[in-house]
Structure prediction request, 174 residues.
Amino acid sequence: PQFRTGLVKVRLSSFSPQAALLTKARRLRAQSVLKKAQPAKTFSLHIGELSVLRSLSLSQCGLDAVPHGIFRLVSLEYLDLSHNDFRDVPPMLVCLQRLVCLDLSFCPVLRTLPQQLAHIASLRRLRLDGTHSVESPPNHIVVQGGKAVLQHMRQREARRSGGTRGFGASTDSR
Prediction:
């Protein structure tokens, strides 16, 4: 691991959650592009053990799926999944009820965003810069930026449930 202003950096190929340093980490940035499935699989299985993690960057890791271990990180506030190759974001993202910022920018094959994002009341920033392939919600909304997408999803959810349910307003535009 390397240190820089409190940020712990690790290579996914050598990820080990048992390291005392990582169990107390609040910010983690995974480095290196994944070329083999095994490091990603190991990472996915163990990342959920880092229960105090508040910030996780998996930008440019060559991921074709969101690691499921992420959904056990209940303290997570910032999640950077930018510059990866997954087609969809699993609805289980709703488990991250403290999430404030989700970065999905420059994900060239991303097709769908789950409607369940509307259920994360704390979510204020949704970054979609350079992600032009999204089909759901409709592209004319996506091109308006993250703020418009969250507003669209929350309005749609409010109509389904018969009224507003206290969803917070978004403050980010793309």
Notes: Strands lie at 2-4, 7-11, 27-31, 55-57, 78-80, 101-103, 125-127. The chain has four helices and seven strands. Residues 146-161 form the longest helix (16 residues).
